[in-house]
């Protein structure tokens, strides 16, 4: 009996020496894979040019550069190969280059097969025919609107008096075409007391991002070399919280105070570089044309945990919902 027990123990020890190291290695690899930074959602500001003059803009028209369409596609493919699932095209004003924009959104859907393709625009240059033609390649269209009072919009620099009317048209087009309609609002000194509840209910965005106005020293800080001085637009944290509280009945509202916003966006600029905002400015990485994605990510200052913490992952594909409040994170393919 004792001999059988010794033999059994000997067998267990031998088998364990083969099985358990392999099991540990698999677990170790799994942990390493999960902690690797993956560029899930990228904001491609392919142009700095804009037809509006918003006083608090923090991505100003410092250059007129536009990367070639082939270079842009090359970098987008590199990002997709490293795990990008969502691309957001922004500016400047992306609809100043509608053919360029159209080719890229179609490439991202047809060739890269991304889960989500979105655009952020001021809306002024959007044509219904563009949306009709590209409805199958566009998941989300976000329009920036900071007030439903046109005199306030003009003070801010957002348009010349027709901004809200165009916003309402675009909202209707999106609902008709099955494109998710999103609203972006920068809460600032000029709109902090406004009650937008009735208008938000009417245009019914599926997601309403409310940003606290942000100062980046080399963009809108008012210093040498900047094109904007946004200091007159600054509000306190309490003023921002009061605005959010006033609209807390809107299920689609997603607040983003400065502490959540600054480092949680992965920004790709017009030269195909990531922009690092950790020091209250924008410091570019090396171009993704020249270095691997992983190396550029190390220079980007991107806080992946903050990205997840600000609800950066949500129901970002066209289906199934296009109504206010549908912000629940889905079980994504990855």
UniProtKB/TrEMBL annotation:
GO BP, sorted A to Z: defense response to virus
Q: Where is the Radical SAM core domain?
A: 34-256
- Which domain of life does the UniProt lineage start with? Eukaryota
Name the Gene Ontology molecular function terms of this record: 4 iron, 4 sulfur cluster binding; catalytic activity; metal ion binding
Name what cofactor the protein needs. [4Fe-4S] cluster
Q: Which InterPro entries match?
A: Aldolase_TIM, Elp3/MiaA/NifB-like_rSAM, RSAD2/Viperin_antiviral, rSAM, rSAM_sf
SUPFAM superfamilies named among the record's database cross-references: Radical SAM enzymes
Keyword terms, alphabetized: 4Fe-4S, Antiviral defense, Iron, Iron-sulfur, Metal-binding, S-adenosyl-L-methionine, Signal
What the entry lists under Pfam families is as follows: Radical_SAM
Q: Which residues form the signal peptide?
A: 1-17
Keyword presence, Membrane: no
Return the PANTHER family for the record.
RADICAL S-ADENOSYL METHIONINE DOMAIN-CONTAINING PROTEIN 2, S-ADENOSYLMETHIONINE-DEPENDENT NUCLEOTIDE DEHYDRATASE RSAD2
Q: What is this protein called?
A: Radical s-adenosyl methionine domain-containing protein 2
Which species? Glomus cerebriforme
């Amino acid at each position: 009996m004792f001999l059988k027990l010794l033999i059994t123990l000997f067998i267990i020890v031998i088998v364990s020496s083969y099985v358990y190291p392999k099991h540990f290695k698999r677990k170790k690899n799994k942990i390493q894979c999960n902690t690797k930074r993956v560029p899930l959602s990228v904001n491609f500001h392919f142009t700095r040019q804009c037809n509006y003059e918003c006083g608090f803009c923090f991505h100003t028209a410092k250059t007129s550069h536009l990367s070639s369409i082939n270079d842009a596609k090359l970098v987008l493919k590199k990002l997709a190969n490293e795990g990008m699932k969502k691309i957001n095209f922004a500016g400047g004003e992306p609809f100043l280059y509608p053919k360029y924009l159209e080719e890229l959104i179609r490439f991202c859907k047809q060739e890269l097969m991304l889960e989500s393709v979105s655009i952020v625009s001021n809306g002024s240059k959007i044509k219904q025919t563009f949306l009709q033609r590209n409805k199958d390649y566009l998941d989300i269209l976000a329009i920036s609107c900071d007030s439903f009072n046109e005199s306030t919009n003009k003070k801010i620099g957002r348009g010349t008096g027709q901004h809200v009317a165009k916003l309402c048209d675009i909202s209707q087009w999106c609902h008709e075409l099955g494109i998710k309609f999103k609203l972006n609002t920068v809460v600032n000194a000029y709109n902090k007391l406004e009650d937008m509840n009735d208008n938000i209910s009417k245009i019914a965005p599926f997601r309403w991002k409310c940003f606290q106005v942000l100062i980046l020293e080399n963009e809108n800080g008012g210093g040498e070399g900047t094109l904007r001085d946004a200091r007159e637009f600054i509000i306190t944290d309490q003023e921002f919280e009061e605005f959010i509280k006033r609209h807390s009945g809107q299920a689609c509202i997603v607040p983003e105070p400065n502490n959540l916003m600054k480092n949680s966006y992965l920004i790709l600029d017009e030269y195909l570089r990531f922009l690092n905002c950790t020091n209250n400015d924008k410091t570019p990485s090396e171009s993704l044309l020249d270095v691997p994605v992983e190396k550029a990510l190390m220079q980007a200052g991107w806080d992946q945990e903050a990205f997840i913490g600000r609800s950066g992952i949500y129901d970002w594909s066209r289906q199934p919902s296009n109504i206010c409040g549908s912000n629940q994170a889905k079980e994504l393919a990855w």
